[in-house]
């Protein structure tokens, strides 16, 4: 199990309805994209971090380890905005407004990723996917997602064990040995993926699978107070952004 999934299963908000957490996380994401980068995205990022470290109970180290990956993509997407290609200053030159556009993009995307992480850190996929059928998602699509979610963790565990076995047999002592080990790892993982899928199909057929996976979904009532607090937080962020923007201008 990935660290973010383990954190979601042990979250303080595990018992809350996924719709509540979706309203908060996706609401922050929309605010990060729709509001001006300064000060809107900064305020959204600060609010998301405060909620994650405070009420949600996410450890700072866990948050940083999960956030640094999307943050790297944000930086990678912002760097090309610093340059202009094919202009009068040469084939590649610094764009006049490149730093401004890059900073704006970085602020928006990094704040939006924190909103998504808020939802991911508090909502396990096993709680979310079965409820998607009530939202109108076709049942077969949800079933495929559930099966793929399960198989993904099984394959990751198998790959980890194979790598441990290769390391114990000195499979990474040289570059040539590492390449041979990588090829063997890919081949073994490919074969095991088909084996897992076949065994899963056999198990479902033996249990009378009729096209629908029936799973127990823990009951959770929607909290009106939580939704009201979410609406108040989002409205406060919008209002504070407008006030600060006018005061700066």
UniProtKB/TrEMBL annotation:
The keyword DNA-binding does not apply. The chain crosses the membrane at residues 38-59, 66-85, 105-123, 215-244. It comes from the Bacteria. Pfam families: CbiQ. One of its GO terms (biological process) is cobalt ion transport. The keyword Iron-sulfur does not apply. Keywords: Cell membrane, Membrane, Transmembrane, Transmembrane helix. GO terms for cellular component: ATP-binding cassette (ABC) transporter complex. It is a multi-pass membrane protein. It is found in: Cell membrane. Its main location: membrane. PANTHER family: COBALT TRANSPORT PROTEIN CBIQ. This is Cobalt ECF transporter T component CbiQ.
């Amino acid at each position: 199990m990935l660290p973010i999934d383990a954190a979601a299963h042990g979250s303080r908000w595990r018992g809350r309805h996924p719709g509540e957490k979706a309203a908060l996380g996706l609401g922050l994401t929309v605010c990060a994209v729709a509001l001006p980068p300064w000060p809107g995205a900064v305020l959204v990022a600060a609010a998301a971090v405060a909620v994650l470290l405070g009420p949600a109970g996410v450890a700072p180290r866990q948050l940083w380890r999960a956030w640094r990956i999307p943050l790297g993509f944000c930086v990678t997407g912002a760097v090309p905005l610093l340059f202009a290609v094919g202009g009068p200053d040469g084939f590649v030159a610094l764009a006049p407004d490149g730093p401004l556009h890059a900073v704006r993009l970085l602020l928006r995307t990094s704040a939006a990723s924190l909103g998504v992480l808020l939802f991911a850190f508090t909502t396990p996929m096993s709680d979310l996917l079965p409820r998607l059928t009530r939202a109108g998602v076709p049942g077969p699509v949800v079933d495929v997602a559930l099966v793929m979610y399960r198989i993904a963790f099984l394959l990751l565990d198998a790959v980890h064990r194979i790598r441990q076995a290769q390391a114990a047999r000195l499979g990474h002592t040289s570059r040539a040995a590492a390449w041979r080990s990588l090829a063997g790892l890919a081949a073994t993982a490919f074969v095991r993926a088909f084996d897992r899928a076949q065994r899963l199909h056999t198990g479902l057929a033996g249990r009378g699978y009729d096209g629908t996976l029936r799973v127990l979904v823990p009951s959770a009532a929607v909290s009106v107070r939580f939704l009201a607090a979410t609406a108040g937080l989002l409205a406060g962020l919008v209002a504070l952004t407008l006030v600060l923007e006018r005061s700066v201008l």
